[in-house]
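@channel anyone free to eyeball this complex?
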Amino acid sequence: MKLGMILFLISEAFLFGALFTVYYYLRAETAVWPPVGVHLDLPLAIVNTAILLTSSVVIWWAGTAIRNGNEKGLSVGLSLTIILGAAFLAITGYEWAHETFGASTSAYGSIFFTMTGFHALHVFGGILLMLSLLARNTKHKFSSSHYLAVEVGSLYWHYVDFVWIIVFATLFIIK
Amino acid sequence: MKGIFSLSVVKGFLAGLAGTGIGMGVMMLIRAIMGMPAWKTGPVVVAGILTGVIAYLAGLGVFHYWFRWAVGDEAKEVDAPPVKGWRRYFNVDTNHKVIGIQYLVTALVFLPFAVALQLLGRLDLSKLIPAISASAYESVISTHGLIMFFFVVIPAFTGLMNYLIPLLIGARDMAFPRLNAISFWLLLPAALLVTFSLAAGGFDTGWTVYPPLSAAFENVGMDMVLLGIYIGGLATILGSINILATIIKMRAPGMTYFRLPIFVWSALATTAMTLVFTQFIAMSFLMVLFERLFGMGFFNPQMGGQVLLYQYMFWFYSHPAVYVFVLLGLGIISDIIPVFTSKPLFGYKTVALASPGIAAGGMIVFGHHMFAAGMPAVLRIPFMATTLLVAVPTGVKVFAWVATMWMGKIRLSTPFLFVVSAIVIFLLGGLTGIPLGIVPIDLYLHDTYWVVGHFHAMIFGGFLLPTMAAIYYWFPKVTGKMLSEKWGKIQWALLTLGTFLLIIPMLGLGVDGMRRRVISYSPGLNMQLLHTLTAVGGFLVFTGLVVLAYNLVISFKRGEIAGDNPWGGRTLEWMVSSPPPENNFSVIPEVLDRPHMHGVSGSIHARFGNNDNNHDQREQGG
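replying in thread with the prediction:
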C-alpha cells in the first residue's frame, strides 16, 4: 500500500517538475521576469507557508498518537490538520482575488496561477483524505497495531507540504 | 432486455450521458449568471465532458468501495464475480485476467479502425479517389496517430502485462485490483472522445498538437482530443503504479530479479517510464487547453510565452513513449525464441539489463525531434551523440536473439515466424534511424516520409509483429484452444509482405522529399507509384488483421484443445491449466533458477513446493 503511494508521489513529482520546467524556462528566456506590474504579497505567502509547515507537524504528532493507541489524539490531530489546510486554501483564494495580474495577462500570470492552482488542488485532495481518515477513526478503525492508512495519508500530506516549499521558493524568493 | 441494464458498462454509459448533460447545463447557467453569453462551445463542452466522465465512473460502480471506505463503513468485497461468462467482460471486474482481455479486445477493435482511417488518406494520396478536403485529411491522419498510440499500442501492451505478469511471477492477482479496473474503464471515455472528435470537425495539427495552431484552432474537436488524451494518460499512470507495485512486491519465493522472464524486465522498464513521463504530455496538453479556455499564454510570444517550450515538454514524454511502444515487444521476442529453438537465452543478464538501459538512454535523446525546430544549435551535438548511443542496448538484444537461434532446434510455428519477421523489420527500422540521428542528414529528412517509414518499421517490428507472436503463443493458455496454424501462416505472410510494401516505398518517398501531412504533391514528381505501393501494403496489412479476426473466432469455437503446455514453455504460466484457474495458483510455486534454460539438461525453473499437503509435485524442466 505504501509502495503504491510512493509510486504515485513519484509520478506527481514529475507533474510539478513539468510546472517548474515551464516557470524556469520562461524565466530564462524572458528579459524582464517577473513582468512589469507584478507585485507579490510576500508576508501573506510566508504566513501560508507557516500554516502548512505547522500542519505537517500536527499530522506527524497525530501519527505518533495512534501508534500509542490514542484514538482521540488522532482525531484531534486530523481535525487540526484539516482546519489548517482549509486556512491555507482560504488565504490562497484571497491572494488570488487580490493579485495585480491575471492568468490571461501574461505567460507569467498563466504559470503562476497554474502552479499555485495545481498545488491547491492537491491540498484539497489531502483534506478529503484527512476527512475520510477522521470518519474511519470515528468508527474505531484505527488502533496501535492498525494504522497503515494514517501513515499513507501522512506521507501524502508531508509531500504536499514539501512541494509547497519549492513552489514558495520559486515564486516568492527566487522569482 | 432487462438483463442489459445490469451490465456495468451500460449503467456507466447512461450515467455518463446524464452527467454530460448536467455538466453542460450547469456551466451554461453559471455563465448566464456571470453575465456572459450562455453558450460558448469550449467551456460548455469541456465542463460537460468532465462531469460526464465522473458520472460515468460513478455509474460503473468503481467508486462504491472507496466511498464506503471513506465514510468509515465496512465495504462489501466486489472481487467475487457476480456474473459469469461473457458478461464479466462488460462489467467492472477486478480479476487481472478479465481486465487483461478487456484491454486486448479494446486494442484489437481500435486497430483495424485506425488502419482504415489511414487507408482513406492513402487512397487520396495515391490519387485513386477524388481528393478529400485538406482539413479532413489532416484530421484523419492525426486521429490515426493518436488512436494508434493511446488506444491500440498502450492498451495492447497493458493488457498483455495485466494478463501475464501475475502468472509469470507466481502471484494470484495484481497488487491493486480495484485500481486496475478503474484504469481500464477510464480508457473508454478517452477513446470515445478522440474518435468522436472526428465528428466534431477533427483537428488539423497532426498528432503532435503543436501550438500556436492547437491553441487557436477553432473546432471543439481539438478540446475533445486534449481532454481525451489527458484522461487516457491518467489511466496509464494508474496502471503503471499497479504494475510496478506488483512486480516489486508480489514475486513468488525464489523469484529474484535475475530469474524474471525478460517480458517482466521490459514491463519494469516500460512502466517506470510511463509512471513519470506521462505527466509531461498531460501537462503540455492541459496547458494548450488552458490557453484555449482561459486565455492563458504559456506558448504565446505576444504574452511572454515561448513556442519551443511546448516542443521540449512534449518530446520529453513522447520520445521515451516510443520506447514504451517497443520494449515489451522486444521482451516478448526474448521470451519466445528460447522456446522454439530449445536453447537458453544468450546473455540473459545483459538482455535483462538492456531494458532499463534503453529506458535510461531514451530519456536523454528527445532533442533529436527538434533539430530543425530552432533549438539552440549548440544543443544539437549532444543529442546527436546520445541518439546514436541508445542504439547500443537495443543492438545487444538483437545480437542475443541471433546467438540464441544459432545452432538451435528451430520449430517454425506461427509465433516463431512472427518473431523472425519482427526482428528483420525492427532491424531495418533501427538502421533507418541512424541517418535521422545525424544532424545534417536530419535537416533534410525531417518531416519527410523517411521518418514515417522509420517509425512504422519500428512499430511493426517492435509492437505489431511481436504482439501477433504473443497472441499465437498465449491464446492457448488464455482459452485452452490452439489457434489454427494454417490461418496463422497465411496471416503471417500477409502481414509480413504488407509491412515491407508499406515501409520501403515510404523510405523512397522520403529521400525524394515528400513532405509529411500534406494532402497532395505535384504530378511532375512521379511519386504516384510509390504512394500506390504503400497503399497496397496497407491493404495487405488490413487483410491480415481480418484473417486474424477470423482465426480468433473459429479457433475459439472449434480449435484443437491445447492442454497445459502445448509449446513446451518453461515460464510459470505453463504450470497451470489452460485457461488458468480464477486464482492462478492454488499453491504458489517455488522458483529455483532462470526461466530460459531450454535444452540444458537437469535444469528446472520452478516447482510446486515441498508442502506435505501438496501431492501434486509437478516440475518445470528438462
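from a first look: The longest strand of chain B covers residues 604-607.
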